[in-house]
Amino acid sequence: MKFLFKKYVILIWLLLSIALCFVIYTHTYSIHRGCDLVSENDEWEHQSMAVNYAKGLGLYKLGAFAPVSEYHIDACDATLPFLRKLFTKYPTEYYHRAAGFSIITGMLYQVTGTEPYYLRLLNFVLIILSWIIICFAFIPHKKYFKLLLLALPVYICFNFFYIDQIGDEPLLIFSLSIVFFALINWVRKPNLLFTLILLLSLSFSVFIKTTLLFMPVFTFLIAVGLRLKKQIAGALFINVILFASVIIISGKINKKHQSYKYPNQQQFHPDMIKSDWSKEDSTFIKTYHLTYRDNVNFSIDLYKQLAAYLFERQFYSKKSFLLSGQSLFLLIDGNNETCIHVPAKNIGSWMPLWKLTKSSYFYTYTEDQSPYAAIAKFYLKKPYFFPLIVYCKLYAGYYWNYLFLIISALQLSLCILLLQRKNRLSKTVLIMSFSIIIHILLRQLFLTPILVIGFLITSMLILIRFKNRLEKSVSIFFIPYLITFYFLFLTVLMFGLNRYTCIANSMSLLIIVFLLTQMSSLLKINNETVQ
Questions:
Q1: Are the CB atoms for 456 and 439 separated by under 8 Å?
Q2: In whole angstroms, how far apart are CA 163 and each of 31, 50, 54, 173, 346?
Q3: Is the pLDDT at 296 greater than 50, yes or no?
Q4: 176-208 per-position pLDDT tens digit
Q5: Are 403 and 453 in contact (CB under 8 A)?
Q6: CB-based contacts of 507: which residues, under 8 Å, 6+ apart?
Q7: Bridge partner list, 62
Q8: Which residue, among 123, 183, 198, 195, has the nearest Cα to 159 in the 3D structure?
């Protein structure tokens, strides 16, 4: 083991493993592919906004303001008539996305050209840097620092999917690593310098994606939960400064949004609904050499109605938001109440009926009622729906069925028994090992990231058992658990999609390494006692 921790061994291991991971990635994914104009992701939105910024056409510009060839579209599906028309005929200002990805990727494209290949190379580097930054948070604990460095290739493999995507996830993962590094140091030394570093890191994360808007509140909860009296004042300072900045910047963006002249509403909606296959679409595919992927597993007519209204929501609502449309319309998840109608697996709430039925409570712009008031009204009238909706979000996103609930309850019961009784070391190690293995299996069966199932609860309960054996300085290991709760909260609140919790894969790996290290230490102590 000591040989593995030699500096030159670690350096050689990192270089070789990174090279091997890159070779595996390029054979697993098509690194040279362009942008997918398909319905199951938002690559075309991210790509068009980044290219438009790179071409000097402005920020928040969605669609083909430049020649279509500049966007390097590669593939399409059955929704092409709708998206092709929206992309080419209705380019517009679009405030649904935070500015971070467009600006950073746009600057990259200004240097390299607009081919997504260069973005994927950047994504690969960002993932590597993210893990290294997290490792450096543990420099005072040399054993963990070196062990975590050795785990780099595992982390890269965890994030292959994000490297392949044209989207803000790699930047979000990178920003989360900076927040984690700043948070750890702020917990250790809550002086002005580390408070400002944490403030800057949180600001950068919100700049990338507004789903991290509540992370400052989360830092305050960490300070209170871990009884860090010196950090509470700093957390309040961070919240006041950051939210004040967000409100000021949002005010300026809202003025642009409300003054912009969008396409004629009476023409836009009927025109988009009538999008059908035509000679124009066939010519579009041949001209730009698009690959057709027939991977649509839902009603095209329903999709067109839903998508048209989604864009109407952005174009014509003229309602105020924080930084981007997501922070108002998605974080409140106005289609939660219709999630109970979703029968399919891994769809989340993206099959809502909110504009297709008279019983819609949200996104009705003919009324002056606030969306927040509409949500409150819904749950006051039907409070019994809340637990059912939460369960349906988990089912739709993760396929958490009754079998999963039974297995998780069994696992939790075993851990409670472990805490209540003074078991032998062999039993303790056995249950800890079982905890890791069972949740890896659950991940495969139920599409669930390791970090959000009972594994998290299981691990925390085991940590409580060994709390007296841990140094106070190691209390920072509780922070990864708390961050996982934040992402689980976002997932249930927003889409019910597990890709949002997978962003915190780094926290999952930290937890596993920590538990394995604890097991190793316990075995070592036991052997010394026996001898």
A1: no
A2: 9, 17, 21, 11, 21
A3: yes
A4: 999 999 998 888 888 889 899 999 999 999 899
A5: no
A6: 180, 451, 480, 481, 483, 484
A7: 92
A8: 123
